[in-house]
Amino acid sequence: MATTFVLFIFLVSVPSILCNSEGNALHVLRTRLSDPNNVLQSWDPTLVNPCTWFHVTCNNENSVTRLELYRNNIDGKIPKELGKLKNLISLDLYNNKFEGRIPKSLAKLKSLRFLRLNDNNLSGPIPRKLAKLTNLKVFDVSNNNLCGTIPVDGPFANFPIKSFENNRLNGPELKGLVPYDFGC
Questions:
Q1: Given strand 138-140, what is the order of strands in its sheet?
Q2: FRET label pair with 106: which of 1, 63, 156, 173, CA 20 to 30 Å apart?
């Protein structure tokens, strides 16, 4: 009888453990950002899961599938913890003031189809590991301060040049747009 009760408690708690880890990852994002418009005010880490937070969409299993924080004047670095959002389909952080490097941990987001990081202050190279995101349909890093060479393998070969414009990037498909390789 005691074993059955323990098993029941374990099975009931498994979904909330998943959601709490996703909520924790998003809470890390919130704590590292400057949010002058207070758009993240609903992000309460004491809730069971983040599915009730503004700018967060979840699936039927209460797992985060969309994070849409575009055009909010948010400032800060994109934390590596976002790589824990295993069911994320869309990550839209464009038109903010995000800075620093694109985390390599985003390559863990195997379900990701839309990654829009354009119009920020991101710097450094595009992580080569992102080429492993074979489901990626939209990728936009234009209007940042990225540098180095554009990966030409994986899904990157299919993205339009405008997805990479106004950076310090170089690549075979950018001949004429970038006069020389700025390096990083």
A1: 56-58, 64-68, 90-92, 114-116, 138-140
A2: 173
pTM (predicted TM-score): 0.83
Distance separating alpha carbons of residues 97 and 95, to the nearest angstrom = 7
pLDDT tens sequence across 7-57? 344 444 334 334 478 999 999 999 999 999 999 999 998 888 899 999 999
Domain ranges of the chain: 2-174
The predicted-structure confidence for 44-82, as pLDDT tens digits, reads as follows: 988 888 999 999 999 999 999 999 999 999 999 999 999
